[in-house]
User: Which sequence fits this backbone?
């Protein structure tokens, strides 16, 4: 029992240390490269087998500013008709014209999930700000705005970065 507790505490310590260290790395998103420490969001996840009470723990750091308001939301499960599509794209500067750039068919039923998103007043957001972190009813967690900017070529080959203008997804997707 003491060994398991020590292992769990060690994992927590290592994750916390990695968050602190990562605050000083260069982050890259899309065509933008930020100076040291500005855009280096970091995420971590601990599954139910790594916590003493079987809880899931996940988190992320957002190193761009301490004044970015976050919204916690619950999105209920939904049913979709055959042919219903998720559509993503770009809004113009006045948010009046939407240009679709990516579509994907919805499944018959989507799962209930929780999410944390920016307020529309933080950045030049569209009418619906994108979620940064969330977990669905099956316990699947993600941090959706963390991109690898420096990694081994073997990792990059598994999940290459693709410009959204060449069929890739943006952080807003």
Assistant:
């Amino acid at each position: 029992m003491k060994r398991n507790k020590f292992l769990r505490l060690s994992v927590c310590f290592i994750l916390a240390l990695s968050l602190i260290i990562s605050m000083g790395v260069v982050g890259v998103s899309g065509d933008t490269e930020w100076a040291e420490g500005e855009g280096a969001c970091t995420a971590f996840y601990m599954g139910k087998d790594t916590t003493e009470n079987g809880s899931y723990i996940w988190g992320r750091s957002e190193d761009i500013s301490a004044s970015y308001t976050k919204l916690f939301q619950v999105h209920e499960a939904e049913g979709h008709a055959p042919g219903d599509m998720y559509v993503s794209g770009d809004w113009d500067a006045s948010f009046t014209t939407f240009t679709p750039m990516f579509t994907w068919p919805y499944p018959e039923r989507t799962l209930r999930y929780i999410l944390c998103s920016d307020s529309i007043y933080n950045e030049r957001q569209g009418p619906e700000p994108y979620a940064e972190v969330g977990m669905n009813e099956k316990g699947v967690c993600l941090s959706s705005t963390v991109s690898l900017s420096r990694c081994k070529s073997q990792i990059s080959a598994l999940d290459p970065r693709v410009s959204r203008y060449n069929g890739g997804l943006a952080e807003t997707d």
